[in-house]
Amino acid sequence: MLLFTPSPVTVTLSPRKPFPSNALTLHHCFPPFSAKPISRNSFTCALTHSPTHTHVYPDPVPEFAEHETHKFKVELFRKLSEDDVDEFGDDLDAVVAVCAQIFSEFLHKEYGGPGTLLVEPFTDMMVALKKKKLPGAALAARASLLWAQNFVDKDWEVWNSKI
Q1: What is the pLDDT of residues 32-54, one digit of tens each?
Q2: Residue numbers of the chain with a pLDDT score lower than 50
Q3: Are residues 14 and 47 in the same domain?
């Protein structure tokens, strides 16, 4: 159970089935409820007679994953090559390839639309780049994350509006 400052809604995440789909379960807690004060700033809400609403995210779309991976690869290469500092040298292509591979795997296996963008693939990028002793691991992972935050959910919406 999650603890919040006083609020009428408690959110519980629970998988409906193993990835690639996720489910978000919302429990509404309105009086009467039992609250056990833990501190002046938080409370626990018993959800004995609360209605449950479930939102199931769609499965990943392979065609979208391919399209978005290509766009990501082009944009990441552009971003990392435009920086004034030649941090990547001759390894720029290898850095972009590692990031694109990890991003592609995430899009194919786990991304199901807005609300499902996770931070793990970007930390995986940094770890993989460091493990391969490629330069600029933190910079490349950060640029990848920022790009994804700015474009992936929007691109998903556009992609699905065409269907």
Answers
A1: 444 444 444 444 445 555 566 67
A2: 1-45
A3: yes
In a domain, 2, yes or no: no
Residues 78 and 92 grouped into a single domain: yes
The number of distinct structural domains making up the chain is 2
31: containing domain: 9-56
Secondary structure, 3-state, the chain: CCCECCCCEEEEECCCCCCCCCEEEEEECCCCCCEEEEECCEEEECCCCCCEEEEECCCCCHHHHHHHHHHHHHHHHHHHHHCCCCCCHHHHHHHHHHHHHHHHHHHHHCCCCCCCCCCHHHHHHHHHHHHCCCCCHHHHHHHHHHHHHHHHHHHHHHHHHCC
Write down the pTM of the prediction.
Answer: 0.67
Judge if the upstream peptide bond of residue 15 is cis by omega within 30 degrees of 0: no
Q: Which residues have C-beta within 8 Å of that of residue 32, sequence separation ≥ 6?
A: none
